[in-house]
Amino acid sequence: MSFIQVDPTSDFSYQNLPYGVFSTSENPKHRIGVAIGDQILDLSVIKSLFAGPVMSTHQDVFDQPVLNAFMSLGHEAWKETRRTLKTLLSTSESTLRDDASLRSRAFVPQSAASMHLPADIGDYTDFYSSKDHASNVGTMFRGKDNALMPNWLRLPVGYHGRASSVVVSGTALHRPLGQMRPDQTKPPVFRPSQQMDFELEMAFFVGGGNRLGEPITIDRAHEHIFGMVLMNDWSARDIQAWEYVPLGPFLGKNFGTTISPWVVPMEALLPFAEPNPIQDPEPLPYLQHQDPYTFNINLFVSLKGRDMDNHVNICKSNFQFMYWTMKQQLAHHTVNGCNVRPGDLLASGTISGPNPESFGSMLELSWRGSKSIDVGGGKTRTFLNDGDEVRITGFCEGDGFRVGFGSCQGTILPALQP
Known about the structure:
The chain is of the alpha+beta class. The chain is 16% helix and 27% strand. The protein starts with 18 loop residues before the first strand and ends in a 5-residue tail after the last strand.
């Protein structure tokens, strides 16, 4: 299907074609590329080949160091660009295939590239949209009968995160310092977090935006969802437990959030759409949609300590476990007139399934530290140690191909004392 050879197990098939921002040692300029197999197609080199009715007058977006300008053009531009890319990379099109000079300038081995944040993220919102996760956490802290708060089944619960500390995969983060109250009979203490955790999440980038005061309606929401990434929304559980009442997460979350560098376009994911979950009670009309917008994305979390030779899988989950869809999240986010902008990042919240192996955080896997997580070789964890590297991967499985996201990974370093 493509003249670029792609291994069937590669995340970056011809059916995928995700966008990212990269640089090389020979050319340190940040530029936009598309992954296929083990190669990156540099769109700044071939921008003149985007000659469709929309993109012919917007070729300059591929000279930008981030994807925001391209995201701002809207879904018709995204679809036209994808059609052009599919044509240029196909076995039947000679423009790239037979021009050795152009190919040598346009393609870069992924192994020779450094990846960067794909967008200038102006705002970041984290939702709380996995029913299994919310039920687990609620049960731990409030008991089974009070697991879900009264609003949870009525609207996609969310909070505003910190965009400045969103980092690209491979960036190490220091264990945060903060207040916590390990002994409820004594005053709080200040020290490094003792309960460092990962959160298995996915997120989508907004494109197109909306004007202040004008909601994005549920029937148009898909036109504003550019594509998806993997996310690890790191969490310091002991800091968070002390601070979150009454206004929610703050220092326990805003020290760092890791995303994968490749943004998989929604068109690549649509073949893997599944029926939406049955929502009871029925949501209010502004949140109702019948078209499938839940996706069968296999998700995995592995851990490697500094005293371990290899990564060990500790979680196997799936994005289809989500209760609220991305369309519902975006419609709810803007129903009050809130304006979202190209490059804004909206996250799913921790993704957990119904079985213990699908729990998307160590808080759940260790059930608030009450049991040990086996990481092989006689080693266990309840929460993360310094030096632990967490890796999240995910992909959709097609017939002889994958649509994957690459890797979202980061390492916890010791705290920096003030």
